[in-house]
Amino acid sequence: MDDFLIDRDPQTWSALSGHPASLVPSHLFVQPAPGGLEIAVVTATRKPTVGDLRTAWATRRQRRATPVLLIAFYPSPEAPGGERVALCGPVGEQPVVHLDVETSQAERLAEVALREPSHHAATRLLLAALPELDSPIAGLRNSGLLATQELTAGVPMRADWASARTASGRLLAHRGRRLIEGLGYGIATLATNASVLTVAGRREAIAVFCDDGEPFEAPSDRFDGMSPVSRALALADRENVDWVLLTRASEIRLYSARPGVGVGRKGRAETFVELNLSLLASEQAGYLSLLFAAEAVSAGGSLHDILSDSERFAADLAERLRKRVYFETVPALARAVSRRLGEGQRAGATDAEIGEGELDNAYEQVMVILFRLLFVAYAEDKDLLPYRSNGRYADHSLTRLAQRLAEAERSAAVSFDDRATDLWDDVRALWDAVNGGNDDWGVPAYNGGLFSDDPAVSPTGAAIAALRLTNAEFGPALAAALVDDGPQGLGPVDFRSLSVREFGTIYEGLLESKLSVAADDLTVKQVRGADQYVPAGPDDEVEVAAGAVYFGHRSGARKATGSYFTKPFAVEHLLDHALEPALDDHLARLDVLRDADDDAGVASAFFDFRCADIAMGSAHFLVAAVDRIEARLSAWLSLHPVPAVTAELSRLRDTAMDSLGDLSDGVEIETGSLLRRQIARHCVYGVDKNRVAVELARLAIWVHTFVPGLPLSFLDHNFVHGDSLTGVASADDAALAVRPIGDTSQPSLFVHQLENMLDAVAGPLERLARLNDADKAEVAAAREAHAAARAAVRTIDEVFDVATAVRAGMIEIQRDFDFAPDTIAALAHEQRVRDAIEHLQPVHYPTTWPEVFSRDTRSGFDCLLGNPPWEKVVVDREVWYGMHLPGVRSLPVARRRERIDNLEAHRPDLAEEFERERERAEFLKLILRAAFPRLGTGQTDLYKAFAWANLNLCRPGGMLGVVLPRTAVSDAGMANWRREIVHATAALSGGGGKPVASPSRRSSTTRAGCSRECTIPTQSCWPQPLVAHRRQLPQQSTVDIRRRRRSLHHRNRRRPQAQPAQRTSGVALRPNPLNRT
Questions:
Q1: What pLDDT, in 10s, does the model give residues 892-930?
Q2: In terms of Cα–Cα distance, which of 274, 244, 268 is closest to 141?
């Protein structure tokens, strides 16, 4: 300790009242700046406790604004020099403590912090570097660009590691331009504060050399109020180069300018890798050349190799996680939860006595428990929860729990008590903190439906609140979700190497599965090349005992295939050919307004871009769309500042910094992060009928647009739970639906009435569209405005509900019907109509999103994206019963029918449910045919209805990018839709509008798991701006309606044809087909 910071002159200091006697004050080093950082050194005779360290730190700091880093030396015979240190600080109410740190590592960190130009910069450096002390590479910070595992274990094993270390060692003392030149780049001035970097004459990167006190992400006057990284990324877009390099003091940082690059990516400005050369040990110097050198970033260079290896690691990690979730976590939770539900219904009930309704409830509870666990673990690793900044939270975190579970597994000491419930209790405390907030832990209130236990918000959450699983029930599921057995052995799952889209992959894979009670002993055998549950023979190993609850594929397969999940290449294709052209149009509109010096018009139009997915699932497309929109808007704003927009972003940043308090010095809020939050609030929309899917979509968007210090965005308005096919798309749509029988005229008067009604409630709707959510008060105001807007449009919604009931065949409008509001309201309040609407849950677009559909000549969405479900609306008896009789579909026909007949005889409840499902399918056909009268001939398929719905919701001149089966371009039932597409594109392009044959435009879909090829209409084959894509994934041949758990339509029922209508004045009311028992 005597030679610690030997080149600096220390001061002495004395302990104040309350200072622990076990920690003896030694030296004090003070940063030469106003309010400068203090490095307070103490000694101890043994390893200090966390409590003593925090107490000593607090008594030294005395609630001053001055940051303090406490460094405690204590004996450690196995350490070099016989000593190790503990660090605590520099700011916060409960700073995290780091134990067993090497003295040389702590000395380098202290020296670099003391050299910073201000206490803000020193605090920022420490808060970024301290969490990495546990990393084997001090000085390296990886924010989602590469896999940390590949950096720590893979890169040092490269053949060129030794030569890279030698070459880089000579550059560790270089800074700025000299460092970049030493890395092999040519430097040419591009703009006032930026340069273009060349390699062998090729333009490879944009460089910005920041001043020592200039953070990479903070707004700067040098860049017209934008951050250095925002300006660099905008220039990279303009110059069409792939990389951005920034330097500041001893720091060098690398970004990809291409969206979608990085294993754990968020936005471009938050996905990077950084080295602090003052903290990097000489033996680790090879990272500098292998990641940042000119040869590294060039095509085929080491950076590309490391990125590819990182992607492979992340893919393997994700695959391991999915398998454990599918085969360990979910089955274990399913058995525990379903058993508790059965016990709640009937004391002492066994698995075999659990009914179908209880199994459905158990499935929903399992999904919520699973995604609560995954979200909290992910948020801790991504610093969305204060695991690295609040010691009390860290003590209760899932990460610490995962570390303990991994250590127990490594030592073969895993045991879970069948009476204790402390694991469940500890995890419930975390969920409660996320839901309602916990000031001591530094956790803001989430108040989202996924974590709510309010029965009015989440009946499933309320049911979970009543559970208390034992360690024996919960422990194995918890360990499978949190502990990974990877290349380096057992340890917590590295969520930093995963994107939030992995939630969608897991969720949509689980959509293929259901809970069932085994009618027989089941074993697993290969059937048609796949593992299938089948009845066990006398010599077979029983995987599932008769009467036990098990979790399996709805087809009878043992494993989930993820076939609902859209492959990344298909997502990127649609974004390239639909979203990007729509953004081109939007930016061209901004250019016109800017050229006209219409600053107010530019500010008003800046976020007036609307993109939707009306079968969003877990928002896979929308998460990717947010990144694309942010990249384009950020680049445009960086080059063309808009005072009103930048002022609002500055207000958000200031609010966040005020909220963070002491921790604000350690946070750099980049403009792109704020933009992404605003884009999620104003530009993207989604619908799904599965409530869990909607909560996951909101959660994914929130995680992806999180800004430290700001409350969670109010997303209830943008992402809605409901049926996207059975609602009303426009006033014209409603008027046509309620047109009296035999009347073929266009009901213009009624349309005019509806439009007047919408105009009358414009005030609350416009207020809702304008509101932001920078603090809790604004979030509350947004909720109030949303409630006021819903109340204001209630009368119009009633009209739309009646239109829906008419299309469902429940109401027949006569010629003498009185279209007065009171009459409409009376019809809407008929109990049979209310019951039907409650079950159908139609989304009426003009009142759900008025800011989209009240835009004068631009009514509708600028772009619609997605992979809507494509399956026939029919319930096949053998497919349906195959979900309850694993292996039955592989039997000979006679034997198959005998087994199904036998099950029907013994399970009348299943027979009744099957009949209800068939009626629902028939009823759905009637509704879809009425809602989309040009649906065409042939079998009713959901993809056809979604094709029409997307087209109807797209504004004139808008873009449509959806995944469709190849039959969309050949099926006679799609002929009307194809003609509509051709007509629309012809009108906009001025051409003939016919698709152009393009044999060269072929795409092999082997990467999607299919060996066939298909022609993909792209911009060279279809006149734009409407882009229709054929389905690129394997065509589904099953006819069961299982996918309507996601696809929004599994709860509809058919109207019984034989029921007589009840007639009143001007209207005939039919019995509610949904009341069948």
A1: 889 889 989 998 888 888 888 899 888 888 888 888 999
A2: 274
pLDDT tens string 1004-1035: 222 222 222 222 333 323 333 333 333 333 33
Q: Do you find a cis peptide bond into 331, omega within 30 degrees of 0?
A: no
Residues 189 and 113 in one domain: no
- Asked if residue 1 lies in contact with residue 73, where contact means CB atoms within 8 angstroms, the answer is yes
Q: What is the pLDDT of residue 553?
A: 66
3-class SS of residue 370: helix
Tallying the residues shown for the chain, one arrives at: 1077
On whether residue 483 sits in a domain, the answer given is yes
Domain, as residue range, for 439: 317-519+541-553
Distance from chain centroid for Cα 202: 37
**pLDDT score recorded for residue 89:** 94
Cβ atoms of 197 and 180 within 8 Å: the answer is yes
pLDDT digits (tens, 9 = 90+) for 537-565: 888 888 888 888 887 766 555 444 444 66
Asked whether 361 and 354 are in contact (CB, 8 A), the reply is no
Residues whose CB falls within 8 Å of the CB of residue 179, separated by 6 or more in sequence, listed in order? 171, 247, 252, 277
Phi, psi of 226 (to 5 degrees): -95, 165
Final residue of a structural domain among 99, 134, 169: 134
The residue to which tokens 């609040």 are assigned? 390
DSSP classification of residue 217: S
The pTM assigned to this predicted structure is 0.84
**Alpha-carbon distances of 604 from 593, 594, 608, 766, 849, rounded to whole Å:** 10, 12, 7, 12, 18
Buried b (16+ CB within 10 A) or exposed e, 350-365: ebeebebebbebbbbb
Do 266 and 211 share a structural domain?
yes
97 and 112 in a single domain? The answer is yes
Residue 706 CA neighbour count, 13 Å, CB half: 19
Q: Does residue 1038 have a pLDDT over 70?
A: no
Choose one of 89, 112, 134: the last residue of a domain. 134
Tell me the C-alpha distance between 790 and 801, whole Å: 14
